[in-house]
Amino acid sequence: MLIGKFELKRSFVTRSGLLSIVTFAVVWCVILLYPLRLAAELLVQEKGLMQGFSFFDVIGFGSLQQWLVPEFGLFWHFALVIFPLLSIMLAADQTCSDRDRGTLRFIVVRSSRDRVFFGRFAGIMVIQVLLIGAAALSTLALVLYRDAALFSSALPALLVVTVNVILAVLPFTAMMAALSAKVKSARQATVWAILIWTFLAAIIGGLAYYLPTLAFLTLLVPGYQLSNLAELSGWHTLQLAYVPLLQSLVLLAVGRWIMARQTL
After folding, report:
1. N-term to C-term CA, the chain
2. For the residues 244-261, what does the mean pLDDT come to?
3. Stretch 145-161: mean pLDDT, rounded?
4. What is the C-alpha separation between 98 and 63, in angstroms, rounded?
5. CA–CA dist 70, 207 (Å, integer)
6. CA atoms within 13 A on the CB side of 153
7. CB of 225 within 8 A of CB of 236?
């Protein structure tokens, strides 16, 4: 708990942490007030004016019409892109910088490597839960500003998207925990994450295309299910919840193995 609290303090009290939070808040406000709000208004108008045809069907986002509250359907699509990328950046420096400076060896004098590894992971996840919750609540405020009568319909959507986005970022945070336990800096962890993510997805995708029996290997790619999730709505989005949970368990096990054998 102390190690997790330290991560929270580093993100919400220090100057660099506050700068990151403010930057995220500004970027999210721009997304909320312009593309998300305007697209939601367009969806509402289409439901009232057009039958059997939708602009969103043409551009490949017809699943947005399945959401009772358009704002949360749009939030769902934006969040599946923004928060995994944000997770890679936020979670890159879990243990690597402390090990490079030599402070990690002093930390483990009063704690175990497991506690440091899982404490940092838990702290980063709490930070992301707070950011996801704040983004979802701001979307709820936008819904109520448009129509306060939608409150009862918006609450289930709020819960659905919050739980699912948290599940979506779990394997990315676990992947960064494993990489941070191996490399020397947050920059290296970020670069390796992008390279591994890109090449692993390409190699496994190619194998699955030519050898369909190897399609199960796509389970090894963090976030491979995101494109399928984007086609679902409501509580149906939990159909694939087992994928990020299994990926997170495997990546955390790998990260713990690396942490236990890594020279401090």
Report:
1. 22
2. 93
3. 91
4. 45
5. 37
6. 13
7. no
pLDDT in tens, 198-225: 888 888 878 877 888 877 778 888 888 8
Q: Which two tokens stand for residue 7?
A: 């991560």
C-alpha closest to that of 123 among 9, 21, 16, 7:
7
Model confidence, pTM? 0.91
Domain ranges of the chain: 2-261
Give pLDDT tens digits for 8-55: 888 888 888 888 899 999 999 999 988 898 888 888 777 655 555 455
Taking the C-alpha atoms of residue 159 and residue 172, their distance in angstroms, rounded to an integer, is 21
Cβ–Cβ under 8 Å, residues 162 and 136: yes
